[in-house]
Amino acid sequence: MTDPILEHLGPLAPLAGIWEGTKGDDTAPSDDRGVEKNLFRERITFEPLAPVTNHEQILFGLRYATTAWRLEEDSPFHEERGYWMWDGRAKQVLRCFTIPRGMSVLAGGTAMPDSRSFEMMAEIGSPTYGICSNQFLDEEFKTVRYELKVVVHDNDNWSYEEDTQIQIKGQSELFHHIDKNTLTRVEL
């Protein structure tokens, strides 16, 4: 039996379920503020949630949780929790999430209900699609822009690429923290 909420999720509908990726690639700041590359595996769970109404705005969405592990380790190095939302009237995809490093992001973009690929972004200081960090991160590793590209390949595979642009204290160039992976459905 199909969840009736899925028909209202627009381009997010194919993501409902549990997904695993085993060939993730992470380029991140190293301990010495240089470049560190890690291969990782991850598990993402997307659960449909009841419609959310903001007066005349109706959002349909997926509650999600992500956990990632370096391939050679048993303890996770990254977790996040949040929501992916669809505003069908405005044709907006939204992703709001927090990570336990003391950061929250609300990213958004335009998509059609049947889109199989879409992009979302957030910028520091934006009153709508923005980024908020704790004091340490703001001073030492200030995230100034977040970009996400999603491609749904078929009903059982999708991929993403994230570019978190960070101004590291004492460095003139932005650091592009890149995460990408292809995920396979393990459960609907």
TrEMBL record:
Tell me where on the tree of life, at the top rank, the source sits.
Bacteria
Pfam families, per the entry: THAP4_heme-bd (PF08768)
The THAP4-like heme-binding domain extends over: 9-185
- Would you tell me the protein name for this molecule? THAP4-like heme-binding domain-containing protein
Name its species. Nitrospina gracilis (strain 3/211)
Taxonomy of origin reads: Bacteria, Pseudomonadati, Nitrospinota/Tectimicrobiota group, Nitrospinota, Nitrospinia
